[in-house]
Amino acid sequence: MAREVEKKAVFDTDSAKEVVKELRASFVAGKTKSYEWRVAQLKALLKMTEENEPQIAAALRDDLSKPELESYIYEIAMLKNSCRLALKEMKRWIMPEKAKTSLTTFPSSAEIVSEPLGVVLVISAWNYPFLLSLDPVVGAIAAGNAVVLKPSEIAPATASLLAKLVANYLDSSCIKVVEGAVSETSALLEKKWDKIFYTGNGRVARIVMAAAAKHLTPVVLELGGKSPVIVDSGINLQVSIVLILLHVCFLCDLHADILICVFQVATRRIIAGKWGCNNGQACISPDYIITTKDYAPKLLDSFKRELEQFYGKNPLESKDLSRIVNSNHFARLSKLLDEDKVSGKIVHGGERDKNNLKIAPTILLDVPLDSLIMNEEIFGPLLPIIMVDKVEDSFDVINSSGTKPLAAYLFTNKEKLKEKFVATVSAGGLVVNDTTVHLAEHTLPFGGVGDSGMGAYHGKFSFDAFSHKKAVLYRGFACDAFVRYPPYTRRKLRLLQALLGGSLLSIIRALLGWS
Amino acid sequence: MDKVMIDLETDLKVMRECCRSGKTKELSWRRSQLKGLQTFLKENEVEIFRALRDDLGKHYVEAFRDEVGLIKKSLNLALKDLQKWMSSREAKLPIFALLSHAELVPEPLGLVLVISPWNFPLALSLEPLLGAIAAGNAVVLKPSELAPACSSLLFNTLPNYLDNETIKVIEGGPAVGEQLLFKKWDKIFFTGSARVGRIVMSAAAKHLTPVTLELGGKCPAVLDSLSWSWDKEVAVNRIIGAKYGSCAGQACVSVDYLLVEKAFSSAVVELMKVLIKKMYGDNPRESQSVGRIVNKRHFLRLKNLLTDKMVKDSIVYGGSMDEDSLFIEPTILVDPPRESTIMTEEIFGPLLPIITLDKIEDSIDFINARPKPLAIYAFTKNETFRRRMVSQTSSGAVVFNDAIIQYAADTIPFGGIGESGIGNYHGKFSFDTFSHYKAVARRSFLTDFWFRFPPWNNYKLELFETAYNYDYFGMLLIILGLKRSRRRFDRRVVKSVEWKRLENLRLTKADDSQLQIGINNGSSSSKYSNDYCLLGIVWKGKKIYREAMIKMLGNLWITKGELTAKEIGENKYFFSFSDKEDFDRIKAGRPCCFDRNLVVLKEFDMDSMEPKEVNFKHEELWIHVIGLPIKLMERETAKVIGNTTDWFITVDGDGGDLKGKYTRIRVLIDLTKPLKRGIMIHMDDGHIKWISFHYERLAKFCFRCGIHEQSCNQPCLDENGTEVQKQYGAFLIASQRRKAVEIKFEGHGQSQWKNSDVHS
After folding, report:
1. A–B: how many Cβ contacts below 8 A?
2. In a domain, A473, yes or no
């Protein structure tokens, strides 16, 4: 332990070099490439998560006072899931993919082989310090890479727990955790990696990518952005309630929970995405709402009602809400709320507790578009509502910002509006009639576009993100097209034209000299 | 130039507008642009051949084979498959996502920049261009200034065939390139050298622009000792074609050096000489079939490679050059020193070093010792060697028994790894390179899992676990109440973990500000005179770690005002509150439990009392009286029952409120006596009814004798001296009440500790 502390204190370029050297040696030796190694590591990771659930939840409570259930649902269970999926599917993923070949290269066969990239660096974020650290690692292991993980120093309890657990459970010659802040990260970034996977903000992402450029290292950047929610006025909640009642009543009438919860589905789904995800400190949580002028008051009412049901009359006391991660972020959010143009727009919540870094769910109505809160990612429990005359105008509001968000959400029953939404709004992922659920689907790639990042992961996409798709083409020595070689003649040109055209008939004609 | 840049600025704005309008997304637009490209190639074939001859001395057959023909082929494919590529792809969802539907929708990235090189000025400009168009992007193409004829052909003629609002060709050198890189793009597609690739990527980092870099590298060819002469001849033919036949070796995919076994090398060299003669004649300079070096700078670079003293001796064939016509003869070198420049830098010219190895298997180590190449060409019939080559080396592509041909295959990705580039293209991969696959999930309002929403409890946790495991049956059982939650993930577990962690307490900054554990133990009693004080003792428990105790109680009590704690003896604490409200609340909230130990709290008057005088034998508790007939659920009955206990205090609620499952009474009990389990009452109609008592927040007590005690180690004996069996149990613990009525937490989070004396 003491030695570790000592080592940490002087973690600099040299130590980074040592780490990379050790991992590269293991990689070159081919240790990580074997299927057995990958399976063993993933199993160990799964075991590590299963055996340390309370510790993980406690660390998350320390760092973010995250409710245990949220920790379990969004971090622990998600990670276990992706481990299990990788274990189940990996055999299929690593199989070379057969590719068809054309007449141009006849006779031949081709395949696309997934090979590990080498030694990869994963830099993770503080808002889901456990999941965002290990989920990429699952992909990296499945793809057969050696990994260095740098968890965020802003979530220190989780970071030190990760360092301890990973060292205990995983193969430390190939997978390492380096704890540290800016200087350690800079030291790591100086080194040559085969891939850098960064989760965080756009400012640091630029630094990461610039550092990667020096070594021509490909990067995956998972950033955030202002993810909008469009709520159409036409969503008739009452109708759906009846149907849901029908749907669930036969299942059970024991649980009063069910009957209460089916009200206000849309509102609930927004709340679950906004405040139920680490109190708004999630990259995909809704950032602001766009709705029509007529509908805004109704929406607001239902928000107030549902919020009270979820978090009680005094949400600052609720154990089901996370706190703001640190005083810097608390100050930043306070600044957003205290701006002159904005402070008068608070219609719900607004309570703050500086000592405990808690901010109650806050809703702001009709916030000016040029305010601070509408121009930077909020990343906290504040939810501005923007009003437009027609719901179709909301697409312009989103597109005119010029940046592409990580996610965009739409609540509507109108088929046409859905189609238009999919066609006109560009974002990492779109969800119709729900929030944040696309994150849990491993068949969907999770990643941003433009300012919200590049590259995607989850499920097989994680594997792909950490693999190189090597093209392998097999040719025989038979059938060599003499036209390929000099001396070049006009006849060869004609034959080539036919060959590249791919039509058998014209090839024969060219061979016979008829064309 | 400035004017050009200002124009560019406005042009880019217009292009962005066009993108936003959705014009480029239309299938018809993409189709018409691709058709435009086709017409361009068809109508300008002669001009293209001429331009390529002027720039690089390419023969028109070579020009067709490597450039025009390939582009035509790619265009045909794109036009044929465009609709298929553009359609969205369904993503499978588990049943868990009831009535949901998800798909991957390809969408254009927006405005992209294509920077192309001089060696295949047409193919490497149009191949990415057509990919970008097929994906629906607006494109700026900057061809290389080092192939001026082609560049001006593209600049002057190509726009006639395409939509000029969204597709632009910009001519210029490095200065223009630099200006372009300052702008914000949605993708930069660069083909060229690794040095410039780094510059491009650094510039892209400023705007977080994704890049595709198609670079080069020293692509090795490995020639196994083939026994059949036909195979040998074909292999050598293909190597020669790949080396000298493609723009005189100035291609990123051309063979850079050849690895052969020592014993086989002389035969290879002889065969090569023969075949080169066959292809290029006795005087290759006169032959139209070998390309020129692009410019003087590159000519001199190649000349320097050859005239290196150590290298010069290794030339076994060719080596002549003509500076005026920028011609270099196909040249073969055998075993030039491995540390010479020719073996460390990409050659990019018609020089072929042959490296001889003892065993052909050594080639794998040889390749791995160098940066990852764009392609590896292996001519072998040995199956094991092939497999090793695929699995043990890393490169953009591996081709067996041929070279360069992978460039023409549309079904495999073309691109490098490491030093040879990032990203890939060709065929559908080109479309993918310029597309963003947007994840779209559609849900209906009809079904929803109520357990997705807070407030959280263990029941919801259990449901989540089964849902994540796709254990639908288990889920159903839980919903129907047939399966009990086996998880205990409540706060108590976590607290005990925290408590363990506290043993090596490490004060973070945040803790420090709130928990000021000072050394101020000389505080006089007068200091507390205005405060409200409590004395607390951990009832018959083991010694409790005082820091943990203090911190935990601070967390538990959440006071508004200041709270001071002092340890005054083993497991004995003195608490003083600055706020009366806190004091009253804590008093009312008794019993106070810590780690299932009862902490008995007593009011304490600083002025008149001594700690020793305080009697800790009694504590206030809430009792649930269970089993009363509804008729008897009223205050009077509750009082009567309460008086049978040691000391009745009050009843919770009044008349109406009592009509629940139980009546709640608050009593003072004697901790040294066994817990009362209930009472018999005689009903009016004569029969006798057992009324049971359940205790709220009951701390540890002995299941045998029912006395509050950490643990009765000795056997519990009754009056007669016989050992008692288990008489008590967990049934005495009242079930958790949904709402904590008696306590309202109105404080602001954690208590403000002050001057806590932790010295014992």
Report:
1. 366
2. no
Question: Are B702 and B742 found together in one domain?
Answer: no
Comparing CA positions, the residue from B179, B164, B57, B77 lying closest to residue B121 is B57
Structural domain span for residue B558: 526-615+737-747
**Contact state of A429 with B442 under an 8 Å Cβ cutoff:** no
What's the pTM?
Answer: 0.76
DSSP B590: P
Distances (CA, A) of A415 to A371, A393, A432, B629: 33, 17, 10, 58
CATH of the domain at B161: 3.40.605.10
- Among A277, A283, A306, A377, the active-site one is A283
Is residue B274 domain-shared with residue B317, that is, in the same domain? yes
Which residues, in sequence order, are bridge partners of residue A292?
A388
Touching A: B residues 489-508, CB under 8 Å: 489-491, 493-494, 497-498, 501, 508
Give the nearest chain A residue to B405 (CA atoms): A105
Give domain status of residue B154, yes or no.
yes
Tell me if residue A404 falls in helix, strand or coil.
coil
Of B183, B178, B75, nearest to B134 (Cα)?
Answer: B75
Judge if B36 and B14 occupy the same domain.
Answer: yes
* Whole-angstrom Cα Rg for chain A: 27
Tell me how many domains chain A contains: 3
Are the beta carbons of B56 and B291 closer than 8 angstroms?
yes
- Residue A250: inside a domain: yes
d(CA A269, CA A265): 6
515 residues of chain A, pLDDT tens digit each: 334 444 445 677 888 888 999 999 999 999 999 999 999 999 999 999 999 988 999 999 889 988 888 888 889 988 998 999 999 999 999 999 998 877 666 678 899 999 999 999 999 999 999 999 999 999 999 999 999 999 999 999 999 999 999 999 999 999 999 998 888 999 999 999 999 999 999 999 999 999 999 999 999 999 988 999 999 886 655 444 444 444 544 444 434 344 333 446 788 889 988 998 889 999 899 999 999 998 888 889 888 988 888 888 888 888 888 889 889 999 999 999 999 888 889 999 889 998 889 999 999 999 999 999 999 999 999 999 999 999 999 999 898 888 899 999 998 888 899 999 999 999 999 999 888 888 888 889 999 999 999 999 999 999 999 999 999 999 887 766 666 777 777 777 777 777 777 666 776 766 666 54
Does residue B587 share a domain with residue B706? no
Is A53 in Cβ contact with B390 (below 8 Å)? no
Do A57 and B240 count as a contact with CB atoms less than 8 A apart? no
Indicate the residue of A320, A423, A427 with minimum beta-carbon distance to B454.
A320
Is B476 in the A-facing interface, judged by CB distances under 8 Å? Answer: yes
| Same domain for B676 and B611 | no
Strand segments (E) across B409-512 = 414-415, 421-422, 424-425, 435-442
Are B64 and A496 a contacting pair at CB < 8 A?
yes
In a domain, A335, yes or no: yes
Pick from B107, B109, B460: CB nearest A69: B460
Is A51 inside a domain boundary? Answer: yes
Q: What is this model's ipTM?
A: 0.89
Indicate if B214 belongs to the active site: yes
Across the interface, of A213, A434, A470, the residue whose CB is closest to B398 is: A470
Q: Do A500 and B457 touch (CB under 8 A)?
A: no
